């Protein structure tokens, strides 16, 4: 097994607001090996974005507990200056909104070249050449002209390509992509996903992909982490997760999705709604919506258990049945 | 099939592009450029397409929330285009809309009860006790409780707000509901609740839906027939099963193949289209899809394909002429 590139252990990121403490991330463990694509899936408020922002040390929240090691180095204790050495260089990020994450007053070339000028001391001319090279790599036509243009001249899909070019300019070891295709149309999404797969294959970049789209996860990821209310509820390789999901939340999520192949008249739906931020957690936070909730679920928080090799789930159902016997809810 | 409930003929909407100090019209954005379709009583017609293809504009034109540049919208045989305001207001009782953004489409200064009562007051359908009873009933129908009427919309989650929006749309006992991306702002687990609710209501109140969305799996789930739009025109319209089993138009084929499938074992051929959707202000000549089409022929660059009926399925493509 390859060495771990990024290892998040027992991470707790809290937000201190006027209304009280919000435990956005409440004890999360995620690791990524070199060259691997790991997906974090979850609904709004599940803490998936905060987890990734904390890994980049970009969160406004406070890290209360836990450790994050990148390439063997603990990054939570690093000074802002040391962190800047890593950020944008060995670890880069692309954001959801390609429309707002580019600076409108700098040319595209300036913005892509900024990373190599800072981290590699490239001259202006070298940085521009690198920018053109990156634009070609991400499939932007007329790269020599586009490099001197401003972001407003580009469409959403093109801007997301520019974002990827920016993130990849220093050949990072890890790319964190927070909903990279959510704002894009399906045909453009297909282009961007293809591009990311190609880059991953040619450069060996590890990707942490944050998304709510299970289809994107199935196509892109090697391993998947499912988050609910600030915690990891299930983790496994992608095939196992889609063929044998074990946590009732993951199972519900899979069933509530209309698919192109299914002919079901009615969709399964998880009752209730996502718990409000900052609500007090007693017991399993999915228990109020769970079909299998038992008395214990409302009193204690279940541990994340390895139910099969490499397959983790946080549910008391596994404890009572030794993991293996079927607790598959009836199919609707 | 019987008489169409709604019949749309050659519907067009051009938005002028204003330039300069004198706001001279420098050109037009052809948001909807000649659309024909029918909706039958009790069915759900899905309208899919990417951003800027004109699907939302089509929905608004149908309800006359926008005045069409050209064309007809016939509701039970009566042409809505050119009707005066008071006639239209009467017609609108039968036709309501559910909007995409449940955060922006509800007035934050009104209680939920007031929001739902507003259409009742405007159309003088109910007052006093009768009105309160109706609000109660509507809240219950969409799965909320009577005591929610006193609350404000910010106290509700996205899914609950969309339920309020649906209750408001149902207040006047409409026959047709135009739903413009009603679930795209919602989380997956909430999305399925709202879809199920809409299907239940359709059965219960004999509603007809025009369901506009960009998510193909959602549209497939809820619709009977589906129209695929590209740059202001419908390129293909067919029964949903036929459309998904054997898409005819190259754009439909590419669109369907681009949807990521939630099955990591499925290996499929994806048709990746080159480039972006062209600007509707300056659409390509001939077939507007030709610069991106994998099956492009010489004719496509000059001649606009006709939207024609072939055994109940409509395709606008030179390949099938």
TrEMBL record, chain A:
State where the protein is found.
Cell membrane
Write out the transmembrane intervals: none
Among InterPro entries, the record links this protein to: AAA+_ATPase (IPR003593), ABC_Ni/Peptide_Import (IPR050388), ABC_transporter-like_ATP-bd (IPR003439), ABC_transporter-like_CS (IPR017871), Oligopep_ABC_C (IPR013563), P-loop_NTPase (IPR027417)
Give every ABC transporter domain span: 6-254
Question: What GO cellular-component annotations does this UniProt entry give?
Answer: plasma membrane
Q: Which GO terms describe its biological process?
A: peptide transport
MF terms from GO for this chain are: ATP binding; ATP hydrolysis activity
Bilayer topology annotation: Peripheral membrane protein
Into which family does the record put it? Answer: Belongs to the ABC transporter superfamily.
Q: Which PANTHER family match?
A: DIPEPTIDE TRANSPORT ATP-BINDING PROTEIN DPPD, OLIGOPEPTIDE TRANSPORT ATP-BINDING PROTEIN APPD
This chain belongs to the protein called Peptide/nickel transport system ATP-binding protein
Organism per entry: Brevibacillus centrosporus
TrEMBL record, chain B:
CDD domains for the chain: ABC_NikE_OppD_transporters
Known SUPFAM superfamilies for this protein?
Answer: P-loop containing nucleoside triphosphate hydrolases
Q: Name one Pfam family in it.
A: ABC_tran
Please cite one Gene Ontology biological process associated with this protein. peptide transport
UniProt keyword list: ATP-binding, Nucleotide-binding, Transport
Q: Name one GO molecular function term.
A: ATP hydrolysis activity
Q: Which residues form the ABC transporter domain?
A: 6-256
Q: Which InterPro entries would you find in this protein's record? A: AAA+_ATPase, ABC_transp_ATP-bind, ABC_transporter-like_ATP-bd, ABC_transporter-like_CS, Oligopep_ABC_C, P-loop_NTPase
Q: Is Amino-acid biosynthesis among the key words of this record?
A: no
Show the PROSITE patterns listed in the entry.
ABC_TRANSPORTER_1, ABC_TRANSPORTER_2
The record's section on PANTHER family has: ABC TRANSPORTER, ATP-BINDING PROTEIN, TRANSPORT ATP-BINDING PROTEIN
Member of which family? Belongs to the ABC transporter superfamily.
Q: What is this protein called?
A: Oligopeptide transport system ATP-binding protein
């Amino acid at each position: 097994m390859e060495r771990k590139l990024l290892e998040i252990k027992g991470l707790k990121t809290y937000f201190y607001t006027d209304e009280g403490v919000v435990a956005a991330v409440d004890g999360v463990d995620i690791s990524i090996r070199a060259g691997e694509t790991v997906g974090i899936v979850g609904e709004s408020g599940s803490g998936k974005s905060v987890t990734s922002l904390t890994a980049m040390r970009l969160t406004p929240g406070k890290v209360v507990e836990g450790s994050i090691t990148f390439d063997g180095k603990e990054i939570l204790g690093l000074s802002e200056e040391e962190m800047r050495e890593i950020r944008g260089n060995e670890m880069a990020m692309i954001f959801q909104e390609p429309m707002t994450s580019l600076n409108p007053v700098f040319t595209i070339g300036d913005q892509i070249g900024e990373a190599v000028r800072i981290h590699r001391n490239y001259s202006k001319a070298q940085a521009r050449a690198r920018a053109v090279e990156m634009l070609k790599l991400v499939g932007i036509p007329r790269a020599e002209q586009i490099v001197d243009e401003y972001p407003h001249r580009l469409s959403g899909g093109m801007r997301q390509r520019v974002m990827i070019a920016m993130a990849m300019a220093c050949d990072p070891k890890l790319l964190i992509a927070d909903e990279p295709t959510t704002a894009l149309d399906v045909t453009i999404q297909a282009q961007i996903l293809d591009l990311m797969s190609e880059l991953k294959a040619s450069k060996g970049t590890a990707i942490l992909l944050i998304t709510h789209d299970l289809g994107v996860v199935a196509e892109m990821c090697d391993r998947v982490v499912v988050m609910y209310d600030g915690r990891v509820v299930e983790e496994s390789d992608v095939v196992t997760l889609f063929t044998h999901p074990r946590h009732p939340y993951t199972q519900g999520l899979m069933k509530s999705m209309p698919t192109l192949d299914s002919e079901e008249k009615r969709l399964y739906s998880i009752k209730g709604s996502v718990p409000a931020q900052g609500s007090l957690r007693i017991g399993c936070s999915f228990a109020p919506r769970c079909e299998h909730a038992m008395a214990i679920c409302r009193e204690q928080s279940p541990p994340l258990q390895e139910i099969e090799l490499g397959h983790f789930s946080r549910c008391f159902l596994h404890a009572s049945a030794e993991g293996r016997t079927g607790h598959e809810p009836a199919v609707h | 099939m019987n008489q169409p409930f709604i019949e749309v003929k050659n519907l067009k909407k051009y938005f002028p592009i204003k330039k300069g100090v004198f706001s001279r019209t420098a050109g037009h954005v052809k948001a909807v450029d000649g659309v024909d379709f029918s909706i039958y009583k009790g069915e759900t017609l899905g309208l899919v397409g990417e951003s800027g293809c004109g699907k939302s504009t089509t929905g608004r034109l149908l309800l006359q929330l926008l005045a069409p540049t050209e064309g007809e919208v016939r509701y039970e045989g009566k042409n809505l285009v050119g009707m005066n305001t008071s006639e239209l207001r009467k017609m609108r009782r039968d036709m309501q809309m559910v909007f995409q953004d449940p955060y922006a489409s509800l007035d934050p200064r009104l209680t939920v009860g007031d929001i739902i009562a507003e259409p009742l007051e405007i159309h003088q359908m109910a007052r006093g006790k009768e009105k309160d009873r109706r609000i109660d009933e509507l809240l219950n129908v969409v799965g909320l409780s009577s005591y929610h009427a006193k609350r404000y919309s910010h106290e509700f989650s996205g899914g609950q707000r969309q339920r309020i929006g649906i209750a408001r749309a149902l207040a006047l006992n409409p026959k047709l509901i135009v739903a413009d991306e009603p679930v795209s702002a919602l989380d997956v687990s909430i999305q399925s609740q709202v879809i199920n609710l809409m299907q239940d209501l359709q059965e219960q109140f004999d509603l007809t839906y025009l369901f506009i969305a960009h998510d193909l799996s959602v549209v497939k789930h809820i619709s009977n027939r589906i129209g695929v739009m590209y740059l202001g025109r419908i390129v293909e319209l067919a029964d949903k099963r036929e459309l998904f089993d054997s898409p005819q138009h190259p754009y439909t084929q590419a669109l369907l193949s681009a949807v990521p499938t939630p099955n990591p074992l499925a290996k499929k051929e994806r048709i990746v289209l080159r480039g972006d959707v062209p600007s509707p202000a300056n659409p390509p000549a001939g077939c507007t899809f030709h610069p991106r089409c994998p099956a492009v022929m010489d004719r496509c660059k000059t001649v606009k394909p006709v939207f024609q009926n072939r055994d109940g399925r409509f395709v606008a493509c030179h390949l099938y002429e």
